[in-house]
User: Which sequence fits this backbone?
């Protein structure tokens, strides 16, 4: 009885050895197959490797990635998503006064290329060096307005899409967007005489923009843009009488068409934070 | 005798596990692959010749529209040396600020207010610009417009010495006058960014934003409050220029990478 049991144990042992040997060989063969693709596998309806038909030595020297075709999909989908994009900006086209803007865009993408959104921003002014020199060099005080805040309804379109590599190591995706809309901008005069009363005006301001959006991950983007706000602003009249009230001065204010061009940088947060491709890879 | 058989059986069972572990530990076959394969080497070891136009941005008194030439050599795909020359075609193109300012000045001087003529005599304008620069091109890629037009492009940053030759309507013979125009070649630095958008393997549209930083006094009038215009009033001034060039790369045939 003991000998039968021993015989069964011995058979079990040999069976296990044979099984493990077979599975080990299979694993090794799979690994080998990954290292060296079978002849012709690279050209299976895709792209022939550059060393197809080469000697075995040359084939073994061939880089593994050369036989693998990679077709990346569009990295970022926007359709049906909301973009919350706080931004900051600076005036680029006024010699005498500079405005820093702090605001946000909220855009909803109706499709992957069309969006509709709201924008709001607050401005902080800074007088330039040239403005300071006008008094010293020409004995004149410039007529200037400061902008206070603005809001707009905008429509966006994405005409272009691209990708770039950084030193041929990483691939980044980006797009070009254009925006257009209409809004309101509130401005206020900076009186030439310090004690004089100020007046404000609310101006209808069509706006146009062009920019580029870089996709960082599935929900985060960084954008750079130029935006032009065009409006008919009211300036302090040059013939303002001493002591004239703000309201009286506003009645005969000088109007001038203004292009308020800003360079802005924003960070976009997309909701929902992920998306699904409609078609399989 | 029982123990060795069990141990051997156990070790034999571990063999395929070890093989698979080695398999899983192996790195991805794409790990050492470049981001772009079969990349058309549009820059590496190629000369670049270009011509176009530029315009100043944010000048105080005179805008300049420049005709420009550009010559460069790309040492590698990402590193180049180049030079730019520009000549001002519009030396009398006043800015809107200048027109408004001159409109407020009178024919006779009053207190320390200059006449229109005195103000104009002090202002200088750009004659020629020269830039010698090193360019670094970290970004290169492809773009599509309306999913119809596809183009290779690159973006670069550059820096190096920059020169501006200033001109004036009236030469300033002696210093310490109320108006004294700054003229002649000024040496400083130039830096900026640019892009190439390729039409094909050898022709590209080049857009560049450049700043040439030199010591200048564009009004030619007192800046430091000593009531006279002289060399003490010079300050580092930015001169922004945006350029649009068509450039050609030689040799005309680009090589293809791995």
Assistant:
């Amino acid at each position: 009885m003991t000998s039968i049991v021993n015989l069964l144990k011995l058979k079990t042992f040999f069976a296990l050895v044979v099984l493990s040997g077979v599975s080990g060989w299979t694993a090794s063969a799979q690994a080998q197959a990954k290292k060296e693709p079978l002849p012709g596998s690279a050209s299976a309806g895709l792209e022939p490797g550059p060393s197809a038909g080469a000697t075995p030595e040359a084939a073994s020297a061939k880089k593994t990635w050369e036989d693998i075709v990679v077709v990346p999909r569009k990295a970022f989908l926007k359709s049906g998503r909301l973009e919350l994009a706080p931004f900051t900006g600076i005036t680029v086209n006024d010699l005498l006064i500079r405005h820093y803007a702090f605001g946000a865009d909220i855009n909803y993408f109706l499709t992957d290329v069309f969006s509709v959104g709201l924008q709001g921003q607050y401005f902080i002014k800074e007088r330039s060096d040239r403005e300071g020199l006008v008094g010293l060099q020409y004995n004149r005080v410039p007529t200037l307005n400061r902008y206070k805040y603005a809001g707009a309804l905008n429509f966006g379109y994405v005409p272009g899409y691209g990708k770039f590599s950084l030193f041929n190591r990483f691939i980044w995706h980006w797009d070009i967007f254009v925006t257009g809309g209409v809004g309101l901008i509130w401005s206020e005069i900076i009186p030439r005489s310090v004690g004089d009363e100020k007046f404000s005006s609310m101006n209808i301001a069509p706006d146009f923009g062009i920019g580029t959006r870089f996709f960082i991950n599935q929900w985060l983007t960084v954008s750079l843009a130029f935006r032009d706000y065009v409006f008919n602003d009211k300036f302090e009249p040059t013939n303002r009488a001493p002591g004239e009230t703000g309201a009286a001065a506003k009645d005969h204010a000088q109007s001038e068409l203004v292009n308020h061009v800003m360079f802005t940088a924003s960070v976009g947060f997309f909701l929902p934070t992920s998306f699904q491709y409609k078609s399989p890879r | 005798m029982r123990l060795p058989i069990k141990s051997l059986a156990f070790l034999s069972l571990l063999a395929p596990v070890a093989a698979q572990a080695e398999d899983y530990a192996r790195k991805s076959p794409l790990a050492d692959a470049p981001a772009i394969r079969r990349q058309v080497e549009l820059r590496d070891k190629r000369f670049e010749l270009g011509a176009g136009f530029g315009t100043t941005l944010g000048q105080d008194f005179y805008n300049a529209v420049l005709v420009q030439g550009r010559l460069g050599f790309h040492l590698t795909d990402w590193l180049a040396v180049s030079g730019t020359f520009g000549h001002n075609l519009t030396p009398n193109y006043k800015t809107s600020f200048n027109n408004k300012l001159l409109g407020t000045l009178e024919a006779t001087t009053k207190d320390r207010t200059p006449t229109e003529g005195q103000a104009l005599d002090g202002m200088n304008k750009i004659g020629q610009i020269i830039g010698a620069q090193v360019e670094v091109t970290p970004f290169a890629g492809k773009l599509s417009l309306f999913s119809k037009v596809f183009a290779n492009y690159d973006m670069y940053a550059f820096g190096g010495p920059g020169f501006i030759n200033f001109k004036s309507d009236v030469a300033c013979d002696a210093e310490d006058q109320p108006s004294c125009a700054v003229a002649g070649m000024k040496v400083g630095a130039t830096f900026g960014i640019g892009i190439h958008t390729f039409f094909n393997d050898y022709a590209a549209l080049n857009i560049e934003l450049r700043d040439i930083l030199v010591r200048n006094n564009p009004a030619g009038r007192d800046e430091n409050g000593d009531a006279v215009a002289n060399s003490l009033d010079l300050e580092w001034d930015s001169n922004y220029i945006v350029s649009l060039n068509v450039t050609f790369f030689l040799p005309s045939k680009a090589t293809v990478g791995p």
Confidence is low (pLDDT under 50) at residues 17-54 of chain A. Strands of chain A lie at 82-91, 97-109, 114-127, 144-166, 170-190, 200-215, 220-235, 254-271. The first strand of chain A starts at residue 82 and ends at 91.
